[in-house]
Amino acid sequence: MDVMRIEGGNPLRGSIPISGSKNAALPALAATLLTEEPCILENVPDLSDIRFMGKILHYLGAEVEQTEATTWKITAANVAPRAPYELVRKMRASVCLMGPLAGRLKRSEVSLPGGCVIGPRPIDMHLKGFAGLGMGINIENGYVQLEASRARGNHIFLGGRHGSTVTGTANVLMAAVLTPGKTLIECAACEPEIVDLCYMLKTMGADIEGIGSPILIVRGVDKLHGCTFKILPDRIEAGTYLIAGAMAAEKLTLQNMRVADQAALIDKLREAEVSIEIDSPTCITVRKSSSPLRPVDVVTHPHPGFPTDLQAQMSSLLSVTPGLSIVTEKVFPNRFMHVPELQRMGADIAIEGPNAIIKGKTSLSGAPVMASDLRASAALILAGLVAEGVTWVLRIYHLDRGYDDIEGKLKAVGAIMNRLPESEMPKELNPQAA
Ligand code: EPZ
Question: Ligand 1: which atom is nearest the Cα of residue 375?
Answer without folding.
Answer: 22
